[in-house]
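To: structure desk
From: M.T.
Subject: fold request, one chain
Message: Could you run this one when you get a chance? Sequence is below, nothing fancy, just the single chain.
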Amino acid sequence: MPAGTTKYVLLETARQIHEQVGLGIPAQQLPPRIAARAQRQGWLSWDDLVRTVRRLSVADTVDILVPALHKRKLLVVLESLEVPPSQATLFAQIIDAAQVVAAMDDTNRRVRIDRLLWRFSEKVQLKPLPLTECATIIERWLQHHPVRFSSPRTRAHFIRHVAQASGGIPAAIRGMLEAAAAETEITPAKARSFHHEASAHYLDMTPVLVILMVIFLAMRYVSRGLGEMEMLVLSGVASAIFIGLRFFMFRMSTSR
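Reply: Done. C-alpha cells follow.
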C-alpha cells in the first residue's frame, strides 16, 4: 500500500488484491453492461472494474477489500505509518484482516499512530548499512545498469561519494543511482553533486527555542534591575514572540 491520498491508496490496493485473489463487488454496484460481461465470462479484468471502484466511497471500498484479504493469507506492506487520521482508521481494519509489515521513523512518531503500533507483535530496528555494503550494492547495480564515467578514477570516486552521501539508506542509494543513469557522462564535479532526500537528517530545534526563551525572560529581570528600558522592551517583545510560538507549536503537536 503506497503513500498518498486515501482514495489513491485504496484504488492501488484494490488493483493489487484483484490481481492476486479477485474482488467480490456486488452486482448491483456494477454498470449493467459490466455485470452482463461478468455473468458471461465469470470474471472481470481490472480495466472493467476500475471505474466502478473509483466511484465507490471510502467506506464501501474498505468493505470490499477486507473480505478479500480474509479470503487468502496475503502479506500487506505499508510504505509508511505516517498517515492522516482517516488512513489510520483504514489501516487498523487492514491489520485485523491480513499479515501486515509497516515502516516508520521512530524519531518522528505521531500520537495518532500509537493506536496502530500495539497491533504489531514484532518490532525490528533497521540500522544504516556500513559503507562496504553500500559500495557492494552500488557495484552490483552498475554491473546491470552501465553508466558512462569520464575515467576509472571518477567511477571509484562516484561509488565512494554515493556510499557516504546515502547515510547507509538503500532508498537514497537507489535514487542517486537512477539519477546518475539519466546522465550522459559522469564527471568528477558531477559525481560530487548527487544527493537524495532519503538520507537527509533534521535537527530538532525545540531545545534551542526553549533555551532562548529562558534567556529572554531572564533579560527582562536583569534589565529591570539595571534600569535599561531598551533592553526591557526588547526582551518583552522577544518573550511575547516565543510565547506565541509555543502556543502554536503545542496546537500543532496535539492535532497530529
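Reply (cont.): The longest helix spans residues 229-255. Let me know if you need anything else for the meeting.
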